[in-house]
Write a structure and sequence with these properties.
By secondary structure, the protein is mostly helical. It has 12 helices and no strands. It starts with a helix and ends with a helix.
Length: 297
């Protein structure tokens, strides 16, 4: 009798279990869609920004340096997506053509920090002893100074110009890459395949290049994606302060600086360029976090 009751009750328990699994699967699908939707939007934003830098005439065929004085201070519209400035120049056209200088300086800065910081971290982690101590003390000094303040001091010493801004920002970011690379080298250098390479008579520099560097470099690349957004902010900040290229050549930071004098009457001159910079920075950091999570799995 008990067996009959159990057999009769068993089918009634299955739909609840199936329902729970279905709900859980639906939640997982929704979470996956939300996560990858943000990643897709970030990729589109970065792709558009790169397109602006590579082929600005495709996205904005007008002249960024000349305007129509009769059309000055026009609000955003279908004719002028970002409005016009005090000289009647189309702000969207100036943003598109300014992407080349801003993103080139950003990529240069990240490249300098990536190469120099990785080399210092690799040398420090592989050498150990007094070399490691000396390099890390220099890195600690760099980390103790706010990166924007250090970049400002360096660009003041180097002089004005987009190239000097890129160098200053790149030097200010070296310490972060050196620390991450050193920690990865310390993790990898005692791996069995590295010790086997040493035992087989492979020269130390060959071991570093063939075995240690490839297995320690992936987290550094993820850091580069995150630091790209930081570099965009730093380059735009120095350009805002007047250390970038000379007017009327457009740069993202200088466009915000030019519009701040008309903030009360023409809000779009500062708000819209600022929103573009925010979108690029957040997209780069979103992509960097995704790459970092992928590498740790």
């Amino acid at each position: 009798m008990v067996d009959i009751l159990v057999r009769r009750a068993a089918p009634t328990a299955r739909p609840a279990s199936v329902t729970e699994h279905g709900v859980e699967r639906g939640h997982r699908t929704a979470r996956w869609a939300r996560a990858h939707l943000g990643l897709l939007v970030s990729g589109i934003v970065l792709a558009v920004a790169v397109g602006w830098a590579v082929a600005p005439s495709v996205f904005a065929s007008g002249d960024p340096l000349t305007g129509v004085p009769a059309q000055k201070f026009q609000a955003p519209s279908a004719a002028h997506w970002f409005g016009t400035d005090n000289l009647g120049r189309d702000l969207y056209t100036r943003m598109v053509h300014g992407a080349g200088l801003s993103l080139t300086a950003t990529l240069t800065a990240v490249g300098i920090a990536l190469v120099v910081g990785s080399a210092l971290g690799l040398l420090s982690g592989a050498s150990g002893g007094i070399v490691d101590t000396a390099i890390m003390r220099v890195v600690d000094v760099l980390l103790s100074i706010p990166s924007l303040l250090l970049a400002l001091a360096l660009v003041t010493a180097l002089g004005f110009g987009t190239r000097n801004v890129a160098i200053a920002v790149g030097v200010s970011l070296i310490a972060n890459f050196a620390r991450v690379m050193r920690s990865e080298v310390l993790r990898v250098r005692h791996a069995p395949y590295v010790e086997a390479a040493h035992a087989s008579g492979v020269r130390w520099y060959a071991v570093l290049v063939r075995h240690v560097l490839p297995n320690a470099f992936q987290p550094v690349l993820a850091l580069a994606a995150v630091e790209f957004g930081v570099a965009v902010l730093a380059v735009s900040s120095l350009s805002f302060l007047g250390y970038g290229t000379k007017p009327p050549t457009p740069e993202w930071g200088s466009l915000i600086s030019e519009g701040r004098n008309f903030l009360a009457s023409a809000w779009w001159l500062t708000t819209l360029p600022g929103l573009v910079i925010i979108a690029v920075v957040l997209s780069a950091q979103r992509l960097g976090r995704f790459v970092g999570r992928t590498e740790t799995r």
